[in-house]
Amino acid sequence: MEGAATRILQAACDGIAAVEVRGIGLDDYLDFHLKTPELRRTVSHILFHYFRRRASLARRIDRLVRKKPQSAIRHILAATLTQIFYCDGIAPESAVNVAVSLTRKRYGRSEAGFVNAVLRRAVTATGEEPPETPENILPQTVLKHWEKRYSPETLQQLTAAFLTPAQTVFRCRRGRELTASEMAEWQAHELPTLSGANLWQFYSLPSPAPLLASEDWDKGRFYFQDPATAATMALPEYAAIERALDVCCAPGGKSLMIAEMLPQNGLLVAADRSERRQKLTRENFRRHGWSRFPIITAEPWNIPEELGVFDLVLADVPCSNTGVFRRRPDALWRFRPEELQDLAGLQMKILIAAGRRVRPGGQLLYSTCSLEPEENEKRVAEFLKTVPGFSIAAESRLLPTVMHDGAYGCLLRRRRSSNNI
């Protein structure tokens, strides 16, 4: 048992280091650096709590130590304190013993004694935690950035969403919604339909286990996805679409939604620059029965010209992820306002490349999971100034709540008389 607990703690510490030291996104660490689903589930539980409570944990550690420990030791303290105060399944005494044992093995007896003393003081310490206000919970960089735009009430709502673990949420394939008996057996609940986003039905349930054990899982009936996605993906006029292109598709969630809306002889090209992530796309397409659609690895500006132009092009661009902090709590800690300019340059380059593949009269769907105007409205405005022949047909903006993520979507239509971009 201690061997498994030690592996879990080490993996959690490695995850903290991956995000905070090496700049790897939490999703990438969990998807590509953990070998078994069981380890991934347990470690992700620890890391999600850690990044939600990072500010509180930092204050707690600072109160307990006189001298700042090296990064590796601080990671052990932080991961163990997360287990003790925010996770179920391991007794505080056992968590301390595992941490001390791991420290002794990796860093020696002196550091192990230090970790033992700090953690045991933490377990017996008394005193109330500060209130869960934006000032005490959100990263200061994010708080200063958002205070310019949001009211105190909205900031408090965003803080509450940040601290609330996201539910297990999924959607059903269109026309194959849950039956009443399935809902009762799985304890599933229909989620309210977001305004204008009624093309797909979303559900929540206590555990993903029934879904994964169902024969329909491998037949593509279900997909884990947040309802905010539907607000953007409901914007296109699908009756006018026979050929579609997704230029940043991996792992394929939005592409699958497009596929469900195409006519029987429709075409969808799913492109992404990451071959590693395209493996996930291929598996998702296989499971949903869309293996006939080409999945290619290419930068948006290098998608083969012989594929021609399309009725719909989706540009779901890389972004700061500030709208999906419920599922990627590390995003707020990695956010740097000064990096928005670099992101904006990449987003514009992708958007221009995507626009070139839209036929005259066709649709261009721009999408982010960011809350930042620099990546959303301002990016669209700059595109319209730079590229002639497009106009805004519809927009969708969502702030995160305890029920769904935040998202931005803008549907652009190309004039029928416009020349090649």
Could you list some keywords that capture this structure?
single chain; 421 residues; alpha/beta; N-utilizing Substance Protein B Homolog, Chain A; Rossmann fold; 4-stranded antiparallel β-sheet; 11 strands; globular
Structural Rg: 23 Å
Task: Return the average pLDDT rounded to an integer.
Answer: 95
Total beta-strand segments: 11
What is the makeup of the main sheet?
A: 7 strands, mixed
Strand order of the largest sheet: 7-6-5-8-9-11-10
Task: Kindly report the CATH topology of the largest domain.
Answer: Rossmann fold
* Coarse morphology: globular
Helix content: 40-55%
Beta-strand level of the residues, as a percent range?
5-15%
> Which class do the helix and strand fractions yield?
alpha/beta
Instruction: Spell the H/E element sequence.
Output: HHHHHHHHHHEHEEHEHEHEHEEHHEHEE
State the helix count: 18
Report the top-level CATH class of the largest domain: Alpha Beta
Low-confidence stretches: none
Distance between the termini: 62 Å
What is the CATH H-level superfamily of the largest domain? Answer: Vaccinia Virus protein VP39
| Count of folded domains | 3
Do you know the CATH architecture of the largest domain? 3-Layer(aba) Sandwich
Walk me through this protein's architecture:
- Helix 1 packs across helix 3, helix 1 packs across helix 5 (71-86) and helix 4 packs across helix 5.
- The chain has helices at 2-20, 26-32, 37-52, 54-64, 71-86, 92-107, 109-124, 134-137, 140-147, 152-163, 180-186, 209-213, 228-233, 253-261, 275-288, 330-334, 340-356, 377-386, and strands at 168-172, 189-190, 202-205, 222-224, 243-246, 267-272, 295-297, 310-316, 358-368, 390-398, 407-414.
- Helices cover 47% and strands 15% of the residues.
- By secondary structure, the protein is of the alpha/beta class.
